[in-house]
């Protein structure tokens, strides 16, 4: 009986002494995929606009990928800017627009932004419009 116990202990110790080597290197791949949309203009100067009358500003883009793209959100930089964007996927080769509707309460120069998140893009796109409220 003693021999069986000693044999089991020796076997256990020998199995515990083997150590497996693991490779803990993390590989990071950078995407080389080109942007899935091409904007006609990311900055628009609307010139002079009247105070208190909503002004729509249209930012046009084309889906340059081989897959449909989805606009997740379009958010104005302030409460004076609302947005409208396509709620359905934009098919490959199709052109569409995001509309910012600016309602100027104060006279003077302004610069506003609309932040657009597209599902296939890592970083959001910042669109800018500027002008003068008269």
Task: Describe this structure in a few short sentences.
The strands form 2 sheets. Strands 1-3-6-5 form a 4-stranded antiparallel beta sheet, with no helix packed on it. The chain has a 4-stranded mixed beta sheet with strand order 2-8-7-4, with no helix packed on it. The chain has one helix spanning 2-17; strands at 37-39, 43-49, 55-63, 71-76, 81-84, 95-102, 108-118, 125-133. The protein contains 1 helix and 8 strands; from the N terminus they run H-E-E-E-E-E-E-E-E.
Descriptive report:
Mean pLDDT is 83; it is low at 15-33. The protein is 12% helix and 43% strand. It contains 1 helix and 8 strands. The longest helix has 16 residues, at 2-17. The protein has one helix at 2-17, and strands at residues 37-39, 43-49, 55-63, 71-76, 81-84, 95-102, 108-118, 125-133. The protein is elongated and about 45 Å long. The strands form 2 sheets. A 4-stranded antiparallel sheet has the order 1-3-6-5, with no helix packed on it. Strands 2-8-7-4 form a 4-stranded mixed sheet, with no helix packed on it. By secondary structure, the chain is mainly beta.
Fraction of residues in H or I helices: 10-25%
Radius of gyration (CA) equals 29 Å
Q: What is the average of the pLDDT values? A: 83
* 3D shape: elongated
Write down how many β-strands occur, each being a DSSP E stretch of 2 or more residues: 8
Largest sheet: 4 strands, antiparallel
Structural category? mainly beta
Strand numbers in spatial order across the main sheet = 1-3-6-5
Low-confidence stretches: 15-33
DSSP summary: helix tally? 1
N-to-C span = 102 Å
Sequence of secondary-structure elements: HEEEEEEEE
Beta content: 35-45%
């Amino acid at each position: 009986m003693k021999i069986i116990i000693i044999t089991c202990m020796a076997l256990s110790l020998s199995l515990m002494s083997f150590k497996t080597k693991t490779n803990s290197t993390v590989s990071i791949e950078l995407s080389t995929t080109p942007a899935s949309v091409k904007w006609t203009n990311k900055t628009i100067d609307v010139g002079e606009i009247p105070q208190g009358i909503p002004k729509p500003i249209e930012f046009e883009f084309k889906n340059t990928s081989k897959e449909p793209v989805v606009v997740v959100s379009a958010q104005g930089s302030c409460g004076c800017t609302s947005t409208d964007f396509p709620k359905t996927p934009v098919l490959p080769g199709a052109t569409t627009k995001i509309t910012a509707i600016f309602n100027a309460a104060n006279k003077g120069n302004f610069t506003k932004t609309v932040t657009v998140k597209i599902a296939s893009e890592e970083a959001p796109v910042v669109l800018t419009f500027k002008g003068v409220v008269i």
